[in-house]
Structure formats: C-alpha cells, structure tokens
Design goal:
Blueprint (H helix, E strand, L loop, with lengths): L12 E7 L5 E7 L3 H5 L3 E3 L24 E4 L6 E4 L2 E5 L1 E3 L10 H13 L3 E14 L12 H6 L1 H13 L4 E6 L5 E9 L1 H21 L3 E3 L15 E7 L2 E2 L12 H14 L3 H4 L5 H4 L9 E6 L4 E6 L10 E4 L8 H18 L16 H4 L7 H10 L1 H7 L1 H18 L4 H8 L6
Parallel strand pairs: 1-6, 14-15
Antiparallel strand pairs: 1-2, 3-4, 4-7, 5-6, 8-10, 8-11, 8-12, 9-10, 12-13, 12-16, 15-16
Helix pairs in contact: 2-9, 4-5, 5-9, 6-9, 9-12, 11-13, 12-13
This protein binds glutamic acid and magnesium ion.
Length: 433
C-alpha cells in the first residue's frame, strides 16, 4: 500500500464497509489521498444504516431514525488490495464523539473475544462459503461436486486464487457443490474478527472475479426456488491457556471437560440464536431436513445433518479437532453470528453444561424425542427466543438486539404475502458485493 496517497490521474480507491443487521455490507468510498480522513474522523453514515432490511426497507426505531449521524472508520493496516487500484478495509462504526457505537457488530465480536480471553480462552475460526454462479456452467451439464464444473470454471478459479493471494486471503480449497452453479471455498482458521472480515473480503473477490468473467454471484440462502441452499458454515476451535479443548481429553472423541461443556453449551443455546445465524425470509427454505444444512439441533461426529458437527482430531483434520456450526447461512452478519456462537460455547464451559447424547445417524430417521428439536423457522419464535436469551444479550448488547428485532420483523412482514419465487428473486443478490 506504499503509494496509496499519491494523487494520480486516475486515483486509487479506498473502500470501507460495515455489515448491517440484515447481513448486507454497506460501504463508503474515498480517493486514496483521503485515506487519513477515513482513519481519523471517519466517513458519515445515518443511524438508519442500522435498520436497513435486506431489501432496503427501513425499520425505524426510536433510536435509529433520520436524526443523528455515525462514522465508519478504518485502520490503514487492515487495507487489502482487491485489484485494479481498489483497496478495501472492514470498518467499525463510531459515534460523533469518537466512541465505538454500541450497534457496531465488529465491536460486539471483539468484546466477546475479550470475555473469552479473561478466562484464558482463545478461538480460531474457519469458514465454508457457498455461492451460486449464474451465467456459467449450463444446468444440464452440471454434476454435483463435478470435475467437469471445476474444469469449466478453471479460469475463474485460477483468477480467484490469484486475487486472493494479492489480497492476503488464505483460500484453502474450492469445489463444485451440490446444486447447479453452486460452488464453495474454505477459508483457513483465523482470529474471530479477522475471520469475519475475511468473509466480506472473500465475497468482494468472488464478486469481482465473477463480474470479470461475465457472471453474477449469489450468496443467498436459497438462490433459486427448490434448489440447494447456500450455507456459510463456521468451524471453530478453542484453546485454554494454549491447550486445545476439543482433543487430548477423556470425554467423547478426546474432548476435555471444557470441550464437552463448550459443545453442550452450543447445543443448549443454538435455537435461541437463530436470529443471528439464519433468519432472513429465505433461511427457513434452506433449513429443511436432508439439505445438509443442520436442521436438527443436535450434535454428532462428522454428522452432516446435525446442526453441530464435531470433527475429531485425525490425520485428515490438519487444523486439529474443531466444531462446525452448519445452521449459519449467507444472510447472517458474520460478526454477530460468531460472537453468539462463541458466547454460547463460553457459557457451556463456565456452567459445565452436560454434553447431550450424540446422534450418530440421520436425525430424520429417529423419533421426535430422540433426534433433537428443529432449528426454529417461525420469526415470532425466533425473535421471542432472542429477546429471552441471556447469552444473546450479553454478547450482542441491547442496542443490537433492538435494531435486529426491528429489521427482522419488517423484513418478514414485507415478504409474508409473497410466494416463494417472488421472495427468492427479490433477495437473490442482497448479500452479494
Ligand atoms: N448446502 C448445504 C447447506 O445449505 C451444505 C452442504 C455441505 O455439507 O457442504 O448448508
Ligand atoms: Mg458445502
């Protein structure tokens, strides 16, 4: 970034963005010679940015309306070269007096990591990002996980890897997913905030590369009616005083007591956290049995139908034992989702929550009492459980919950009278950048 401030004929661009409560990234752009202002005073944004729905409707509340002003601030050290003279950095949201806004989701995650650190706990977070490319491989030529699809998109894949390398994003692998046009990348484990930043960086790079190849990309939980959903699975591992808690212990699959508590806490609280994991008007279409989206709140070693998939230590897991939360989809704000997941695991460690019985088969084949409850898809229930959840309130804070509830209520009422295809079309590109 050495020559960022040079004023040239065609100025380089600096972009800073936040993720709002509908999971949509919203941005400000300056010429590179204004980067200092972006770092110090910040770029203006109305408080209404906090109450935009995925379709841009405004869910005004008492505290978030047309009056007042906020600032997006970036750090120069976070800037990444995303190509063609464009640099991007994740922004934090500040009040005019310079303090960090209580509605800043990046700050909520940073705060959660500090709470963990006060108990000597440190998390690493990895991601699987699924997306659908339109305008690429024709549907009739599609095979799930197909070699043909990978070869057909080889120039896109090659350019994406090159762009990621330049932007210092560690993409570990790429594959064709199940549904037509659907692909997936995995992002290497990183600190929680950096990992959430990386979700947006990855979307920028996928979006820019797709455009350069004449394609559009959707991260929507349901990109076309009746298709395979796009998940945004989160993996995490935890160490306590530097020692892994999901391996090396005497509980199931080598978990330590802390590890079992973390998993127990996660399963116990997961249903209360759906509002930040998968609550767009499309999320319920994806969270159905046999879609590998983890529709049942239970856990199992390498169980792809469980909301929580445990991945035990093995030679096939180079990053060591970890836990995957499958519920999360592309509409989730990655900062808030990660904050809530880590807070649930932390609560389980502190309270030594017992590990529930493992489900070792497809939960759909079991009786209702044996397979675990379904992840809620009814918005009334999702918001009622959010409001009542101590884990959510302590990790997200009152301001975020106020805005989130308003956004989700309006989002759902606006889609309530529409048929599925209208909602799918309306929101197809809401989470694309
Ligand atoms: N597409 C599935 C989802 O919506 C996930 C498939 C997989 O296990 O990778 O979560
Ligand atoms: Mg996948």
């Amino acid at each position: 970034m050495g020559n960022l401030r040079e004023v040239t004929q065609t100025p380089a661009l600096v972009i800073g963005s936040i993720v709002d409560l509908a999971g949509v990234a919203r941005a400000k752009v300056v010429p590179a010679n204004r980067v200092d202002a972006f770092v110090s005073s910040g770029m203006g944004a109305s408080p209404s940015w906090n109450v935009f729905c995925a379709d841009d409707a405004l869910a005004f509340t008492e505290n978030y309306s047309v009056v007042g002003d906020l600032r997006l601030r970036i750090s120069e050290s976070d800037l990444r070269d995303v190509g063609d003279g464009v640099s991007w950095a994740p922004a934090t949201l500040h009040e005019l007096d310079g303090s960090v806004s209580p509605v800043c989701s990046r700050e909520a995650l940073r705060r959660t990591t500090s709470v963990l650190a006060s108990n000597d706990l440190e998390a690493l977070v990895g991601r699987e990002i699924e997306f659908t490319l339109f305008g690429g491989v024709p549907d009739e030529q599609w095979s799930a996980y197909g070699l043909g699809a990978a070869l057909a998109q080889e120039s896109f894949i090659r350019e994406l890897f090159a762009n990621a390398q330049r932007a210092q994003l560690n993409i570990e692998q790429f594959h064709a997913e199940y549904g037509p046009g659907q692909f997936e990348i995995s992002l290497a484990p990183a600190s929680p905030v950096e990992s959430a930043d990386n979700v947006i960086l990855a979307r920028i790079l996928i979006g820019r590369t797709a455009r350069a190849h004449g394609m559009t990309v959707s991260f929507s939980p349901m990109p076309t009616v009746g298709s395979s959903g796009n998940g945004a699975h989160q993996h995490f591992s935890l160490t306590r005083a530097g020692v892994p808690i999901f391996s090396g212990g005497r509980q199931a699959y080598g978990m330590t007591d802390d590890g079992a508590g973390a998993l127990g806490g996660l399963v116990a609280h997961l249903g209360d956290l759906t509002a930040v994991l998968a609550s767009s008007p499309l999320s319920g279409m994806r969270l159905q049995p046999n879609m590998w989206s983890g529709a049942f709140i239970t856990w199992g070693q390498e169980n792809r139908e469980a909301a929580v998939r445990f991945c035990a230590e093995s030679s096939g897991n180079p990053h060591g034992a970890n836990v995957e939360v499958k519920v999360m989809d592309g509409s989730a704000n990655p900062y808030l989702a990660t904050a809530a997941i880590l807070a649930a695991a932390h609560a389980g460690i502190v309270n030594q929550t017992p590990l529930p019985r493992e489900v070792t088969v497809n939960p759909s084949t079991l009786t209702e009492s044996a397979r675990g409850e379904r992840v809620p898809t009814d918005m009334g229930e999702i918001l009622q459980r959010l409001r009542a959840s101590g884990v959510a309130r302590s990790s997200l804070g009152d301001s975020i919950i106020e805005a989130l509830v308003a956004v989700k209520e309006l989002e759902h009422s606006r889609c309530a009278g529409l048929d599925a295809s209208a909602v799918v079309e309306r929101l197809r590109y809401a989470w694309s950048v």
